[in-house]
Amino acid sequence: MRVQQLYLYQFKNYAEHEFHFHEQIVCITGKNGSGKTSLLDAIYFLCFTKSYFVHSDAYCVMHEKQGMRIKAEFEKENSYQVQCILRENGKKEFAINELPYTQFSKHIGKFPVVIITPDDTQLITEGSEVRRKFVDILISQLDENYMRNLMAYNKVLQQRNSLLKKWHELADKDYAVLDIYDDQLNEYARPIYTARKLYIAQLKQKTNTIYNFISEASENIEIEYQTQLHQIELIELLRQNRQKDIVTQRSNYGIHKDDLYLTLNEMPLKIAASQGQRKSFLFGIKFAQFEILKANLDTTPLLLLDDIFEKLDEKRGEKLIQFISNQDTQVFITDTHIERLQDAFAGIEKKVQWIEL
Ligand SMILES: Nc1ncnc2c1ncn2[C@@H]1O[C@H](COP(=O)(O)OP(=O)(O)O)[C@@H](O)[C@H]1O
Ligand SMILES: [Mg+2]
Q1: Whose CA is nearest to atom 27 of ligand 1?
Q2: Ligand 1 atom having least distance to the Cα of 30
Q3: pTM here?
Q4: pLDDT tens digits for 120-140?
Q5: Closest Cα partner for 331 from 321, 339, 344, 340?
Q6: Are 310 and 284 in contact (CB under 8 A)?
Q7: Domains and their CATH numbers in the chain
Q8: How far apart are the CA of 247 and the centre of ligand 2, in A?
Q9: Tens of pLDDT along 257-287?
Q10: How far are the Cα atoms of 169, 206, 215, 285, 321 from residue 313, in angstroms, in the given order?
């Protein structure tokens, strides 16, 4: 897949700007704050219907402006124009070839994308939420129902939690309402659990292979799906632990507690891995995401690589370039140092487009 043209209007630091991309490898250089990451985020936004970096669409609108518009020309077996308009009142509209979507989840996966950024070390260092987000980004591009189920699950979860809070002050509890919420959570959780189990198993196998390719090692990376649901259905858990939920005033069981347990040679990755091993792991898990998307979809995902050569040793850098240039897809790479990228791509046959911001 390719992006041939990108138009930005009031998106982050871009008042109005148009880019044309005409090579498979696009290198974007410029000093800090010049808009490299924002450019990648605009492409990501058009693929995924939201920013990779900020929770709220409003943060993507240029400061002191109202509304924004981004548009791109994608090329796969045909040409597609994808456009997002964020209206002044905050309403978001998404359209493909000028046909508006009613459900944004239908768009996700049509233009698959994998992004690697320096912040991704959070996958190793931070709490389970970051890892769930990673898994959700992967699966929602593969399975049209996944995002819908997840959103529905989260909505019921919120309602259930506010009911539990309300009950704290209420003597008279209507258990029938809780029964309904429990049934709904169970229904939405089931396909989410099944999908996570399936794709996390693939992730584990592929990450290990790529990790060892990048680091020229033969180490053992394990990615284990941690969930309360391996042995027992959610509805049973909810029934058994109802009193606990009522006392603590929140939902202690469900797929919102899922996590990935990451190990390197049987030790928790977070404490066992050196800086270099962490980098290799991140490339491993991200490129595994790329390979799973590629294998399951009819088009190869775009690769958006933000500042990946920063603090990367030469050997890993070379392996990375090797991996990237073997892929039949468009790759966008940013760097503050043009020389560093020029050196990295010096021995590569593929044509490279250089954009200096
Ligand atoms: N909503 C926004 N409105 C205006 N400027 C923004 C907005 N969001 C981010 N910026 C600014 O855009 C500039 C470019 O950011 P970024 O793309 O991260 O730069 P780079 O990756 O090249 O270092 C930064 O100065 C940042 O503060
Ligand atoms: Mg940046």
Answers
A1: 33
A2: 22
A3: 0.95
A4: 999 999 999 999 999 999 999
A5: 321
A6: no
A7: 1-112+299-357 (3.40.50.300), 126-296 (1.20.1050.90)
A8: 45
A9: 999 999 999 999 999 999 889 999 999 999 9
A10: 59, 23, 10, 19, 12
